[in-house]
Hints:
Helix content is about 35%, strand content about 20%. With about 280 residues, the protein is an alpha/beta fold. Belongs to the protein N5-glutamine methyltransferase family. PrmC subfamily. It holds the Pfam family PrmC_N.
Amino acid sequence: MLDWLQPGNTLAACENSSPLERIDTRLLLMHGLGMTRIQLITQSELVLDAEQLAIVQELFSRRIKGEPIAYILQERDFFGLNFHVTPAVLIPRPDTELLVELALQYAPANSRLLDMGTGSGAIAVAIAHQRPDLQVAALDVSPTALAVARENARRHLPADKVEFFCSNWYTALADKKFQTIVSNPPYIVENDAHLQQGDLRFEPVDALTDHADGLSAYRQIIGEAHLHLLADGWILLEHGYDQAEAVRDLLVQASFTEVQSWRDLAGIERVSGGKLQIQT
Length: 280
């Protein structure tokens, strides 16, 4: 038993004595006890019974051991929507909202858009939710991740609004073509120390790193893009804080034009992209 959680504790005592950040404490109490924030306040003197105490003990123990709050709650907000998340998918992050914003800006009306390595489906679902005129497709090599993505699509979109493919990058797409391709692929270099720190310790390693130099996914996505991207179509790629120049170079080598990078709210070059120039 956690020594600060004892029989006879009130909600207020649990919240005030918790070693966790206050926001995490409140979220765990709300989740475990099925209460709203208002109920936590108005029922602050409620004494937890044995069953409630056991539930709270287990949730707090998991968080103290470092498990991400998103996996414990099985949800995370992204682009104004609430997404179901499990350890089979990366936790959607605010940085990635820049990729969605750019996709909404560059995707032409009534066109087709592809999200590669969709994971939870956050990018594809957010785009489809904002732009019902688009025909959105999403792929992932993990059937387990795709199950999560499909659930999130059902949660926020009309039936069959997003077409899903179980595919190792372009493999299962046959001759399908798109006006816009977006992706947040694995980009952490193998054996990077960050993989053993914080939330990353709990996230699917194959969605974080390419087990190489961090650029192999970009080489494949960019190198084969001309087979699935229509003329003058845009490709938009999220990447690591120090990879913008390398990704731009790959785009230039593959005959993309208007190659550029965009900065996130922290001022870091977070997304790079370009327009496909078809050689004649």
